[in-house]
């Protein structure tokens, strides 16, 4: 678009000069077009706004509508029919925090507090001094077999691959993670130079395609894995069993985004649509899964290794818990993704109707780990539409130790939810491999916005915790969040997702609602 603007501008000026040769007054038209050309050039050279940089002059219309948004925002919040995955209230909060703008709102809540599904936290008459509470809460990840435990932020960048995201987007996320001392998950697309260039902490994700850790036949390669896992930037390794956006389906990289560079990193043929297998070839039973986790831990030199999944059949996760106990081996962390998780490309039926939502899955996993008496060995991360401080607080109250966010981090980069992720035409340069669009995203500007969003959202979480009179995330529980389930019926999350007694899954006291799944679960098969 920038090249087109330059060509069009030159053509218009030349046309006016030619016309002026025949009619001298035509030269006055230069006074009309010159301001527009000046504005377009200014758009191209500025580094703050990707849309204006990629679409000079025309991109200004987007910001005109953005200025109008507060006047019509309430209407759109109540009538959000454009298919966008994040409502405009949350979107505004993310943009404001990323840009360090005022994120307070006038006239009180913009939500219907009497609508079904409305949630709130219980505050205290004696809240704590916000300034006296730790503003940088962290979680130490590492079980008994871990030799290099990692101190993680309670909010990190969720899995997004290079290939799905542009090189500039990956660099900006990693640079932001370095500034804010949080971790950046690579996604299953492999460990690219853009993940390593800025020096931020890395969670290297290994998917079913074993990109970056595979042999020529696409099978897991211990040698290739050890080479990348031993890098000092790699702090943790995450084995992806499934993701919430398309559980049981495997990843998809559209052919248009599979450039020669992306293909070289993934060890696949360029210009083809890359489908990751829906299942792993390195293991096939619960015991083999846990043994594979232990193998990865040893190959990495004792770094924290965990796995990510969206809960499907409850019996299968219970089978994994039984395998842990029989082998006395445990992952260092488990990432629970919700069925509402996002992706750049997925069949709509999988996105909409497959996989347990995050809150249900998170409560179930926490219950099982406590019920089997192994919760102290394993940290739990929540992933799936985590956007705000309240959503972090809610996830931790339900059982998470930390959270991962993808969509909010993308929006901090400048994503405008154009929903072009699968077409290689992302206008903001975030989810594209088109060099002309990628260049519009300036790393040095966007890395600061990513760090700002993280910092301000963590501060929001800490301030909420202080308002509840709580000085540590570990003291949050399900009783402290309430939800309106009907117009005149309110329940706490403890009532909606009842906790179970510690060790109840191994002491012949299995709760009735889990008995069928427990009885059909085996450590030797899924």
Can you walk me through this structure?
With 526 residues, the protein is of the alpha/beta class. The chain folds into two domains: 2-76, no CATH class; 138-515, TIM Barrel (Alpha-Beta Barrel), CATH 3.20.20. Helix content is 40%, strand content 12%. It has 19 helices and 15 strands. The protein has helices spanning 2-22, 29-45, 50-54, 60-78, 88-98, 167-180, 193-196, 222-229, 260-266, 286-299, 314-327, 348-353, 358-371, 389-398, 407-413, 435-438, 443-467, 493-496, 512-520, and strands at residues 119-121, 138-141, 150-153, 155-157, 183-185, 201-206, 234-240, 252-253, 274-275, 305-310, 333-337, 379-383, 402-405, 481-486, 489-492. The strands form four sheets. The protein has an eight-stranded parallel sheet with strand order 4-13-12-11-10-7-6-5. Strands 1-14-15 form a three-stranded antiparallel sheet. It has a two-stranded antiparallel ribbon with strand order 2-3. The radius of gyration is 25 Å and the shape is globular. The model is unreliable at 71-84 (pLDDT under 50).
